[in-house]
Structure formats: structure tokens, C-alpha cells
């Protein structure tokens, strides 16, 4: 859902995820894009992002992350220790790359690193 409860197109959803995907690279997004992401993730409209809202987002994009793991990342920037993120805490969550880490968590485990040369089938040209 968008800022006003409207259904999002896939392209709009991707635009909202840009700050999450590029977290840690402050030249890649601005406060407005982070604000749009914050408003979109705040499903109950209380101006905070809770672990269950991030858990729902992860499920929507096909990731399975435990609530405990999500809480661990929230705790890294939860300055008032209330267990949820206001906008400023969420901004730090994005800028420090914690949201990106959550999003990419299992991907790095799935990559197999090897020093062996890659075997390319003979019918594929490089």
C-alpha cells in the first residue's frame, strides 16, 4: 500500500524499496525516498515501524527472517529503547545498511565461492 492506502504497482513498490536496497550508500537516496519507504512500511499508521511490520514486508518479498533477528537490527538504532522505530531511527536503520542486511541476509550464504576456474559448456560462447 502507498501513502494513502492505494494499491502499489510493482514499479512503485520497487521505487519504495530503493533506500532499503541501497542502504549504506547515502548518495543513492534522499530523505524524501526514505520518508516514502517509512510511510509505506508503517501499516498501522502510528508513525512507528514495529518488528511485525518489517516481518510482513520480508514475507511479501519472499524472505523468511525471524522476528528475533529483526528485533536485533531494530535494537541497533532504537535510541529510546521502545522496541520500534520512529522516522529518525528508521533513517539510521536505512543509512547504516541494516535494512539492506536484512534483505540480503540469505543471499550471501547461497553464493558459493571457489578459486577453481568456472567450467563453461562448449556450446556457450563467452
From TrEMBL:
Signal peptide: none annotated. Keywords: Calcium. Pfam families: EF-hand_7. The keyword Transport does not apply. GO terms for molecular function: calcium ion binding. InterPro entries: EF-hand-dom_pair (IPR011992), EF_Hand_1_Ca_BS (IPR018247), EF_hand_dom (IPR002048). Residues 37-64, 65-100 form the EF-hand domain. This is EF-hand domain-containing protein. The lineage of its organism: Eukaryota, Metazoa, Spiralia, Gnathifera, Rotifera.
